[in-house]
Amino acid sequence: MALDFAPEHIGPLEKTHERKSFDCGHEDLNRYLREQARQDAEKRVAAPFVFTQPGDPKVLGFYTLSSSIISADELPVELMKRLPRYGQLPVTLLGRLAVDRSAGGQGVGEFLLVDALRRSLETAQQIAAMAVIVDAKNERAESFYRHFDFQPFQQTPLRLFLSMAQIAKLFE
Ligand SMILES: CC(C)(COP(=O)(O)OP(=O)(O)OC[C@H]1O[C@@H](n2cnc3c(N)ncnc32)[C@H](O)[C@@H]1OP(=O)(O)O)[C@@H](O)C(=O)NCCC(=O)NCCS
Question: What is the extent of the structural domain holding 107?
């Protein structure tokens, strides 16, 4: 059956969401959702958001957002030159993003990513963040983010960023 991509089907992870059967193909991400995500939310170290379908508590995909900070010299020189000379810069960390295998290849990853970027942009209007950064688990994940114009950091290629200025343009 076709998935319903209404924006209201992404919301904060709650106790009632069914996480046990979630399988994205990476055991560490599955375990995170099962065992850690609720605690992270309660302790306010990460905000997990999940995608579900109406009347079904099964989690089909999720992502987490947290505040973070980067060293300015990690950024590409061209971008650094255009920024104020602060040693450290505020960013939003897209810590994890994963899709259940049963829903793979249908646009759920993109739907989650766009939602995470929109939420990050809205939040940055109140608490500044100059980019969204991600730590890709492997080269496949890296290529997923590059598909959406994320660029690698200078010294750590599996860490990627998309500037908030670029994100703002996406939603103009
Ligand atoms: C990577 C992942 C999130 C993709 O989710 P998905 O729902 O299957 O992807 P979508 O169907 O939304 O794909 C959207 C677009 O991204 C592209 N895409 C998907 N995976 C890609 C990859 N690994 N590399 C490049 N492009 C990719 C698709 O071709 C599609 O492009 P199009 O719209 O131009 O046709 C999913 O496979 C997953 O959860 N993997 C395991 C966990 C993981 O690696 N998470 C990422 C970082 S921690």
Answer: 7-170
- Rounded distance between C-alpha atoms, residue 33 and residue 41, angstroms: 11
Backbone angles phi, psi at 87, to 5 degrees: -70, -35
Told to judge if 145 belongs to the known catalytic residues of this protein, a careful annotator would answer yes
Separation of alpha carbons 37 and 117, rounded Å = 20
Give the per-residue pLDDT at 80. Answer: 87
The residue whose CA is least distant from atom 42 of ligand 1 is 98
Q: Please give the mean pLDDT across all residues of the chain.
A: 96
Residue 1: inside a domain:
no
Where does ligand 1 bind, in terms of residues with CB under 6 Å?
A: 24-26, 29, 96-99, 104-110, 136-137, 140-141, 143-144, 147
Phi, psi of 58 (to 5 degrees): -65, 130
Ligand 1: which atom is nearest the Cα of residue 106? Answer: 11
User: How many domains are contained in the chain?
Assistant: 1
Tokens read off for 141: 């994940």
pTM of the model as a whole: 0.96
Residue 39: strand, helix, or coil? helix
Query: Which CATH number goes with the domain that contains 41?
Result: 3.40.630.30
Q: What is the pLDDT of residues 78-118, one digit of tens each?
A: 888 889 999 999 999 999 999 999 999 999 999 999 999 99
